[in-house]
Amino acid sequence: MDSSSSSSSSSSYGVAHVSHISNPCIFGEAGSSSSSTYRDKRWNLMKWVSKLFKSGSNGGGGGGARTNHHPPQFQEDENMVFPLHPSSLDDRSRGARDKEELDRAMSLSLADDRRRPHGYGWSMDNNSDFPRPFHGGVNPPSFIPPYEPTYQFRRRQSRICGGCNRDIGMGNYLGCMGTFFHPECFCCHSCRYPITEHEFSLSGTKPYHKICFKELTHPKCEVCHHFIPTNDAGLIEYRCHPFWNQKYCPSHEYDKTARCCSCERLESWDVRYYTLEDGRSLCLECMETAITDTGDCQPLYHAIRDYYEGMYMKLEQQIPMLLVQREALNDAIVGEKNGYHHMPETRGLCLSEEQTVTSVLKRPRLGAHRLYGMRTQPRKLTRKCEVTAILVLYGLPRLLTGAILAHELMHGWLRLKGYRNLNPEVEEGICQVLSYMWLESEVLSDPLSRNVPSTSSSSSSFSNKKGGKSNMEKKLGEFFKHQIAHDASPAYGGGFRAANAAVSKYGLHRTLDHIRYTGTFPL
Questions:
Q1: Which tens digits make up the pLDDT trace of 343-358?
Q2: Of 84, 161, 282, 436, which residue is least crowded by CB atoms under 10 Å?
Q3: 243-299 confidence digits (pLDDT tens)
Q4: At a CB cut-off of 8 Å and minimum separation 6, what does 392 contact?
Q5: Which of the 8 DSSP states describes residue 116?
Q6: 76 by DSSP, 3-state: which?
Q7: Where in the sequence does UniProt note compositional bias of the Basic and acidic residues kind (predicted)?
Q8: CB contact set of 427 (below 8 Å; sequence gap of 6+)
């Protein structure tokens, strides 16, 4: 009895070593058109000009004389008093006095700038509407201000862009990750476009757009092609096929998403599977080598019998072989007294009772992703020996059909050779070993590289018509081997591993002899 079961693993994880940065720092460079800094500078200047004009109006309105013992007062918020030398009223013109006051205002403003923190200097060259001092020939002032007028500024320390490795110069820049960037040089490591959002993701020292980082690290469902959602604990939880590594949302196990009856992969939303008449689904890759009627299966069946003969295990009796639908196979199981049935689905059966079985006589036609128009025929099976017939489920790919045939033929060989009352672990285990060995002979392309006979020359007629086995067919063969080796059932899985260990240690025929006399595997 050959059967199948599907399995998937559940995984969840959280993304590690990732920082999500909010609101990157944006700075205005010294000398830029920063409105607040420029207003402060202009206000300081106009305040001094206002003081200058008030001074002139108090001292020379109408050309009258001004008394020396009443110095001018500036009615501003500072209420500062600047006494003037008496001789300056007589020796200098009003223009000279205005020039002196303007120089003093400029020197105080520049001195105030030098006391500012580094990076906040400014230049008169970048302010076209700022009044410039006139450097004409005037008499030197008799009053020396405490701050010498100067227009040489301390040089700003250069900043090198972490993106282009050039000097940032004047203008806006970004400060992030311990360095500086031109705004256009702070780019996503994935798409290479500038990061202009307020939030971005940081992996190590590489910045990313949040959506780009999600595309790179957040797994997508291979069925619906959406990001796999997180569970209640905030972890990404998904199902993963143990062989194909197909990741999908846990919900697809319950939303009636089609699953291939051969390779167990779920149907993707952008790919249509074929639907067989008994309701099973078949993926495109498995459909390429599917065997759909009894006549097409006969060459493969005889090739596997030849394989047994090459192993010195010839079957003398001609055992009928039929391809049947699921319903017919299930009915045959009900009428069969012998055999171990491994659910959820049985795909092959070695009959020992007389029954009437409906077999697939003519292959169905293919259209609109459905197989239809199948012709069936009831057949009366009479018992001429210990084995009545071998039944195999139709519509499976060639390698899987062959593996089922190899398994069921071993059941027939054991019964014909007088192996009686074996427990399921022993009988199903040694049958799985023969199925595994046949698959191995088919998957390996070079007959000289193995110690078992090959049936490739005779049983691969279907594949040879299309140019030999494709890489996908070989991959399917590896998957069917994986299914046998990792079966979790005690009879099929545990039995295979015990039988395979015995065959590997003692050889197939010594193991069979030990089973005949003891009913167990040699240790």
A1: 557 899 988 877 788 8
A2: 84
A3: 999 999 999 988 889 999 999 999 998 888 988 888 899 999 999 999 988 999 999
A4: 297, 321, 322, 323, 324, 347, 348, 401, 404, 405, 408
A5: S
A6: coil
A7: 88-104
A8: 340, 411, 414, 419, 495
